[in-house]
Please model this.
Amino acid sequence: MTYLSSNQLKQYKDKGFVSPINIFSKDKMKEIRNEIELIENTIPGELEKSGRYNAHLISPLLDEVTHNSKILDAVQSLIGENILVCGTTLFIKNPNEQGFVSYHQDAKYIGLEPHNWVTAWVAITDSNEHNGCMRMWSGSHQDILKQHDQKFNEGNLLTRGQTVSNVPKNETEPLILKAGQMSLHHPKVVHGSDLNHSNDRRIGFVIQSYIGTNVKQVLGKNSVQLARGIDKFNFHEKIERTKSLMEKNDLKIKKQENSYLQEIFYSGSEKKGNY
Ligand SMILES: O=C(O)CCC(=O)C(=O)O
Model:
């Protein structure tokens, strides 16, 4: 069992994140990286741009991560025992590419209300300051939702380049994770990440997010999977868990889900970006 300790709960309450949490072995992460790379090689482009969302619907190993009981124990400590998965994202930064993530608050554009949800960032590879790990503005979740400019800037891995200004970057805390560890972060904590300066890929698999069954999608439509407990609210359609790798029907479902997600991410914006 991996319920959060009182120290970890305090860290989350005070800072808006808790990290690192040991979940998987290094070998398991290698196996998962191989499965991700097999998908990339078999169906070029499948995990790029909007395809990086919801890879757990076509990959049994990512499905296993998403429904892992140790992760769910930790998540339950924060949002209660009735838990839905409403999506996942692969944040991959290749060496020699310009990928970064501008400082933002997830709650600003994800459309999940109330904020009874949490995001789990699972390190498939090591993630550190050299290869562009996430950085958190500690305590910023206690403030109101901030103004975000839409920058649509080159290399920004966010759909619209949503950016909070005046972040004290040299005070932000790096979330240094070994492959197999995870962090959990609050919907309102301001965070971002820099470029990958290493010569290997930085791969994060992000369950974005685990939501309480009482949470609605107010900007569009999200299908979900029940991860734990019971759903007496039934606000969302349910989708099946995948049974085999890159199955044709699962690929179709992933595509459909990702088109709903694009609507959410671009909601209220006249311009569309590169993702
Ligand atoms: O992987 C990254 O660098 C950023 C991820 C992120 O913004 C998130 O998980 O909310």
User: Anything to note?
Assistant: The pocket of 2-oxoglutaric acid is lined by residues 91, 101, 106, 119, 121, 134, 191, 193, 204, 206, 208 (CB under 6 Å).
